[in-house]
Amino acid sequence: MSNLAYVGMVCALCFSAIGSGLGAGLAAQSAVGGWKKCYSEGKPAPFIMVAFAGAPLTQTIYGFLLMNFINSAFQATGNMLMCLGVGVFGGLAIGLSAFLQGKVAACSADALAETGKGTANYFIVVGIVETVALFTLVFSMLLLNS
After folding, report:
1. What is the pLDDT of residues 49-94, one digit of tens each?
2. d(CA 137, CA 62)
3. What angle do CA 63, 112, 48 make, to 5 degrees?
4. CB contact set of 125 (below 8 Å; sequence gap of 6+)
5. Which Pfam families does the protein's record reference (predicted)?
6. Euclidean distance between CA atoms 76 and 145, whole angstroms
7. Percent of the chain beyond pLDDT 70?
8. How far apart are CA 59 and CA 116, in angstroms?
9. 84 Cβ partners below 8 Å, 6+ apart?
10. Could you give the CA distance from residue 39 to residue 42 in angstroms, rounded to a whole number?
11. Using an 8 Å Cβ cutoff, are 132 and 57 in contact?
C-alpha cells in the first residue's frame, strides 16, 4: 500500500480521536462542575450528564470506520491522492464536529445542573452537531466509491 494512503487512513482516525478526546474532556469538566453545583445547593445531581460527557466519543468510531473505508477504496482503486484527501479532510471535519459537540454538551450539562430542566432539548442540539460527523462519514464513503 502506498504511504499516502496510509497517511490518509491515520489522519481519518487520529483527527477524529483528537476531536473526541478534546470534546469529551470539555463536556466531562462541565458535568463535574454541574454535579458540584448541585451538591453544594443540596439538589439532586442528574446522572444523565454522563451522557453529555460521552457524546463526543462516537466520532472516534466514525474515524475508525472511515479509515477502513479508505483502505477498501485504495485496494479497489489504487487512488492514493483521493484516499489521502478524504482521510485528512474527513478526519478533520469529524474531529471538529466532536470538539464542538463537546462544547455544546458542556453548555448543556451546565444548564441542566442549574435549572434541572430541558434535558430533551439539550440532547437534540447535541445530536444536531453529531449529524455533521455522520454526514461527513456518509459523504466520504460516497466519494470513495465514485
Report:
1. 999 999 999 999 999 999 999 999 999 999 999 999 999 999 999 9
2. 7
3. 55
4. 104, 108
5. ATP-synt_C (PF00137)
6. 9
7. 99
8. 28
9. 4, 5, 7, 8, 11
10. 5
11. no
